[in-house]
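Issue 218. Parser rejects a valid record. Input:
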Amino acid sequence: MKTIPDTFSADPGLLTDKVILVTGATGGFGKAVSMALARHGATVVLLARSLRRVEALYDEIEQAGFPTPAIYPIDLEGASEQDYAELADNIENQLGRLDGMIHCAAMLGTPTLFAQSDTSTWYQVHQVNLHAPYLLTRACLPLLEKAARASLVFMTDDKTGAYWDAYQVSKQALAAMARLLAREYDGSSLRVNCYQPGKTRTALQLRAFPAADENDELPLPADHTDAFLYLMCDACQGNGETFTLA
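Output the parser choked on:
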């Protein structure tokens, strides 16, 4: 596990002229990351399920005077391979490039004994946490490969004990996919890394541990944004690494 360099400083124009896609853009991590990217000059492609919420985030970024984002409402649970191909085509036609992608979207499901797990929930969680990142990444790889310096980041989790059911399995598989991609693109212009935030005060954390005494003391998604800025900027040389909060 690595942390970003102590010497890293996110200058205001750090990501100027970069186009970066964020999934789950209206969620706890997604919104904080999207705002931070836009604040530092990136044109952010806001991908989320709710049109109303993604339009509100669009307005917030515009009103702050940051680069105008692009919005792409899509339901990761039901999107098809063709939907992702069309998304990649639209990014190329409308924005001309893609320099980075951050997979923030996640579904917890229902932590339970494996023998008592629900089949439909198992499929839903894997669709959002694993299959959607696979399909979206594969569709956008040609665009990322064209960039002079591109960065792909998968958010993973360290829940490896009992009862986490589909969530644990899907997140472990996502990390394995990231490592595979990192090896295949080693030495190229595309860097592939993971970010493992640990316990953070998000809706997913509160649902997983609703009665935990420490919930109010946990870091917020905004406390992690420097790490994402580093992973998206050209100064980051890491590939095949898992980063975490310092």
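Fixed in the parser; the record now loads. The chain has one domain: 19-243.
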